[in-house]
Amino acid sequence: MGRAFNMCASGKTFVGRKQFIITMNTYLFVYDLMQFCGHSWIFTNMIIRFMSFGKDSLADTFYSIGLVMRLCQLLSVLEILHILIGIDKSRFFPRFLQITERIIVLFVVINSQEEVQGKYIVCVLFFLWNLLDVVRYTYNMLARTGIYYLPLTWLNFSLCILLYPLSVLAKAFAIYVSLPYFETFGTYSIKLPLPFAFSIYFPYVLKMYLLVLFIGMCFITQNLFSERKAHLGTGNIKKKRS
User: Fold this and answer.
1) Are 36 and 138 in contact (CB under 8 A)?
2) Which of 50-64, 168-182, 192-206 has the lowest mean pLDDT?
3) CB atoms within 10 A of CB 211
4) Confidence band (pLDDT; 50, 70, 90) for 122?
């Protein structure tokens, strides 16, 4: 009887674990779908505006799609939580660096300086981010359902190797363009009175962050190559096809 009870308990545990996995996969699919819809809307909007208004559309990119872009980037912070609780098997540190890079550049640099928001570099940066994310979230959604389309898999793990370094250069240029405005307006610069006599000159912080940005780029690019090799190796492709 004790043996039968143990078998029943183990069976319930198995069913409960299976149900949990299905629930988490459904949640992740819905998350990926929301991100895909957001980034697809941004990407499509940028293309249509450029085809309709030409270069004039570049200057007001932030004003037309900035809100949705900020919502998508805030939502992406959940991906860090997904990795921490174990429902996403991605490596934590590379994903953490990629998300924080975007948050810092978008919210600290671009959002805080209205003069930077009208620069062409913002349009270039948004285009690169959304092109990467439309492909990535499409791949993720299909992978959640067990579908691996080889051309999409190749595109997902190859395109990022080319576009991610370009996006880092765009981020660095956006920071460089913003420096005169941070120097002029003193945004985020802090000067404490005596007896502390301590000050933080924010343009210096941004210049130091540029170094961190390029060091992080080397680390993340190496990780992207590793992921590409792991997913596009001959053995892995055969497994996904089967």
Assistant:
1) yes
2) 192-206
3) 9
4) very high
The encoded tokens of residue 132 equal 């990467």
As a whole number of angstroms, the distance between CA 124 and CA 122 comes to 5
Structure tokens at 67: 């809100």
Whole-number Å distance between alpha carbons of 84 and 208: 28
Average pLDDT over residues 211-229: 95
Residues 6+ positions from 100 with CB-CB distance below 8 Å = none
Cβ pair 24, 87 in contact under 8 A: yes
What is the spatial distance between Cα 209 and Cα 83, in angstroms, rounded to a whole number?
25
Contact yes or no for 144/82 (Cβ under 8 A):
no
For residue 136, how far is the Cα from the chain centroid?
10
DSSP the chain: -HHHHHHHHHHHHHHHHHHHHHHHHHHHHHHHHHHHHHHHHHHHHHHHHHHHHTTHHHHTHHHHHHHHHHHHHHHTTHHHHHHHTTS--S-HHHHHHHHHHHHIIIIIIITT-HHHHTSHHHHHHHHHHHHHHHHHHHHHHHHHTT---HHHHHHHHHHHHHHHHHHHHHHHHHHHHHHHHHHHH-TT-EEPPTTT--EE-HHHHHHHHHHHHHHHHHHHHHHHHHHHHHHHSHHHHHHHH-
Which amino acid, 165?
P
| pTM recorded for the entire structure | 0.88
